[in-house]
Amino acid sequence: MKTTIAKLKNHIGEEVTIGAWIANKRSSGKIAFLQLRDGTGFVQGVVVKSDIPEEQFLLAKGITQETSVYVTGSVQTDERSQSGVELVVSKIQVISESQDYPITPKEHGTEFLMDHRHLWIRSKRQHAVLKIRNEIIHAVNEFFYNNDFVKVDPPILTGSSAEGTTSLFHTKYFEEDAYLSQSGQLYMEAAAMALGKVYSFGPTFRAEKSKTRRHLIEFWMIEPEMAFVEHEESLQIQEQFVSHVVQSVLERCKAELQTLGRDVTKLENVKAPFPRVSYDDAIKMLKEKGFDDIEWGDDFGAPHETAIAESFDKPVFITNYPKDIKAFYMKPHPERDDVVLCADLIAPEGYGEIIGGSQRIDDLELMRQRYEEHGLTDDAYKWYLELRQYGSVPHSGFGLGLERTVAWLSGVEHVRETIPFPRLLNRLYP
Q1: What are 38-51's pLDDT values in tens digits?
Q2: 60: left (phi over 0), alpha (psi -120 to 50) or beta
Q3: Domain limits for position 376
C-alpha cells in the first residue's frame, strides 16, 4: 500500500510504501537509522541488518543526503517520535541519487542559506514555518468564508497609488506609466460597494530601501473592506479574525510549533477582546518608558511599538493617530479634527504592527478637499471619488501582513524565513 508520512499513524502494523528523500542518516554496525521526509512530514526508518538482504543494508549505510527513494516497511508505534510512529524498513529503492548536497547538518551562514533557498526550504525548520504559513492562509480564507465575505482580486498593475508613489515600483504599461500595487485597498472599497463585505489576498510590493527584520520588498496582504461597518465594529471583526487564525494554528500545527521550539503559552491567551490604547496615551506610555524624544505627531517605529506591546500579553490596538501622519482616505474623528478613526494592531513579543486599518471617508466634499490637500488628480482618482458620489455609505477596512503574522506565530526572528522565496533589498535570487 502506498501512503504518505502524515498518514502512517493510520496504518500501524501494516506494510506500506512511501516516496521520500533522505534528510539525514546515522548507523551502527548492525542497524541504520534513516531520517525520511516526503513533504507531509518526517519519520525515522529503521534498517536492521539481520532482517534484510546484505546489499539492502549496505545501500542504507551508504545512501547520501537528499537521495530520493521508495521505502517499504512495517509501521510501528514509537512514543518518542514526534509523529508517534517509525518505519521498520524491509526494502529501499533508489529513484535518484543526490551527490554533494551543499546544506549539511553543520552550521551555515545566512547568506549561504539564502543563496540556496531553493534547497533550504527542505530543512525541518523551514518546513515547519511554511506549514504554519499554509495553515494561516487556510484559517484566513475559512474565517472570511464563514463570515460571508466575498474574495475579490484587485489588479497588481495600477495607474495610481493608495498612499503616494514614492515607494512604488514603476514600469511602462505600453505608452502609459504604471506601478506594481502596494495595496489593493482602493479597489476593494469599490468591490465593497458592490458586494458588501469583501477581502483580497495577494502580493503587494514596496520599493522601500529597508533592511530590517520586519520588511520584505514583495509580500502578501489580506485586505478586507466592509460596507455599512464603522470603526468600532471593524475593530471587533479584526480581533475575532486574529483570534481565529491564532487558535487554528495552535490546534492544527502542534508538531510544527514543537519543531520550532515555540512557547505556545504566549499564543494561547490570544483571544478577543484585545486591549486598546489611544495614540495620546501611547505617547505618555513611551515617555514614561524613557523615550524622551518622542513627541505628539511623531509616527512610531519598531522600538516604540515593542515598548508599548511589552505592557500586554495580547495584541494591542493603538487608536486615533494624528491625521497628518496617516493616509488621505481616513475618516476624521467626530470629536477631534486632529486625529482620525484608525488603529494599528501591535503583536506581542516585539513582532510589531500586523494590522493597519481605519474607517474610510464617505463624504464627497471632504474627499474632494483631501484630493486638493494631497495633490491627487482626477485623471488617476476620478473613479475613487465616484464611490462617494453614487450612494456612499459608512465603510471600514484593514490590511494584515501575512509574513509578519507567520513570523509572530512561528516565533522566527526574521521575515525572510516566512515566505518561500524572499525578495529583499539586495536579493532577487533564487
Answers
A1: 999 999 999 999 99
A2: alpha
A3: 117-417
